[in-house]
Amino acid sequence: MKLETPQETPAGELSGQQAEAESTAQNPMHAAEALARRLLGLRARDARLSHEAVALPESTSRLTALAKARVENGQALKAIVQEGGWPSREAVGDEASTAALQLLLHAEDRQLQLACRDLILASVQEGDSPAIHGAYIEDFCCVLEGRKQWYGTKFDPTLLRPFPIEDPDGVDERRREVGLPPLEDQLRQLRGTAQHRT
Q1: Handedness of CA 155, 158, 160, 166 (dihedral sign)
Q2: What does the pLDDT look like over 26-50, one tens digit per residue?
Q3: What is the spatial distance between Cα 115 and Cα 118, in angstroms, rounded to a whole number?
Q4: Treating both helix axes as pointing N-terminal to C-terminal, what angle do 131-144 and 171-178 enclose, rounded to 10 degrees?
Q5: Are 43 and 103 in contact (CB under 8 A)?
Q6: Burial level of 22, CB count in 10 A (0-12/13-18/19+)?
Q7: For residue 116, what are the contacts with CB-CB under 8 A and spacing of at least 6?
Q8: 135, 154 in Cβ contact below 8 A?
């Protein structure tokens, strides 16, 4: 499944993308490997800039660089999805598919996130993506739309607690079904990480 919106490519990127498309058109395996490397590279840049921004949070230039990179990463991911559909585990492997999800969750394009939710959930239904990916994007979009989340994966960064959860008594069972640890375990880990930073 692909996004239905028209693809817009900046003129400067066109020749590089055309060359890559020509070199991979005859070899789908090579194309998948190239796409996986690209997704991992985009995630690595996001992680590096995020680490730098956290290390020096008062630096507006670092925060600006991170925000700019996330917009660009979102645009790159949108082009990838428009061209070939959601980069599922079946298409690009576990690590690169997880990288695509992380890029999506960090993107500034809310319409892209909502559109990709449907693609990811369909991919999970078809067995091409892990159920945990569906849980993360479903919760993300629930909170984005002002609804209660199902799995408790989306946390308030200030209060260090999950945003409201639908049927909280059943959350750990739902989490177990998709491969997530009990919510209390994730809360302990999150709070431990926050204490380590301070």
Answers
A1: negative
A2: 576 789 999 999 999 999 999 999 9
A3: 6
A4: 140
A5: yes
A6: exposed
A7: 3, 81, 86, 104, 137
A8: no
